[in-house]
């Protein structure tokens, strides 16, 4: 049903903003949620957290005239209970029905769409290169990006199209002009913002190795190759070709202090190798990833920080709240980084999660082979990223 089609309950209920819900979860407050979406949507992705209790009862169960005791028994108590849906219409209706039955409830403003618009910027405190480095975090999908600011100039890596204005505004608020927007690769889980930023006067940069994937706009943007370097104020951003997840995967070394690895290496796992050439090409890509990690990434100094383009529910943040970790720490904690090639390939091919939702359409859009307006682009990327080789952390015991 369209949100406007739901009848209005007699009892009005308050709304909670997505950022306020996120704050409560981050602060470890007890949060109880009723997700009123369809079961399949709930299973694909939902709000999670150590202090979160969540139940799924689809909205259509509340369309009958009476909300009976059997239905109420399926609904957890909350202080208050947070009811959510996809866009906010169904949850407001369900929350109203529950309020009529005497429950203490609020509903999530704009539903999971509102949750997907949360985008936080955290300073990377362990970065010790020139300028200041920040990590962007999108909790709904686990997408990460990076903003480097130095001497009045700024650069962003792996920007999301949905937040184009945000990068420009943040740079300005930090006293800088956004001069570069870099993509690490052709993404499969979100619509890249590099072209949108280039249209706003920022120099868009994509890996030159992506040409072989028939990118339609390589002549419109700047392409980068292994060893290229870009000045951002007093800082340098160095290009390092790191294929494996994709043939064009490229990492960027900020101030010799943090390596933005795209989807090559995460703080809890390594990349999945099947999103470019499918299952048939995955073994060769996995071997390429092994070679990349051993010769291009792990040869950097142990104290160089790794910052991927994503984090999963299995990832643990550092003390500064960012999903970053020194190479030496990851090598000590992640057995996959010290395995021989055959063991490594067998491991990352053995437990790959489902491919990201809508990944074929997203890849085609990021290649420039199909178009999507802003609303469609936002809808395409809703859901988890699933770009790691495993749903579980490969670190620890």
From TrEMBL:
Example GO BP: hydrogen sulfide metabolic process
Superkingdom: Archaea
Metal-binding in keyword set: yes
Gene Ontology molecular function: any one: metal ion binding
Any Pfam family matching the protein: Lactamase_B
Record bears the keyword Metal-binding: yes
Residue intervals of the Rhodanese domain: 27-123
Keywords from the named record: Metal-binding
Protein name: Glyoxylase, beta-lactamase superfamily II
Organism per entry: Halorientalis regularis
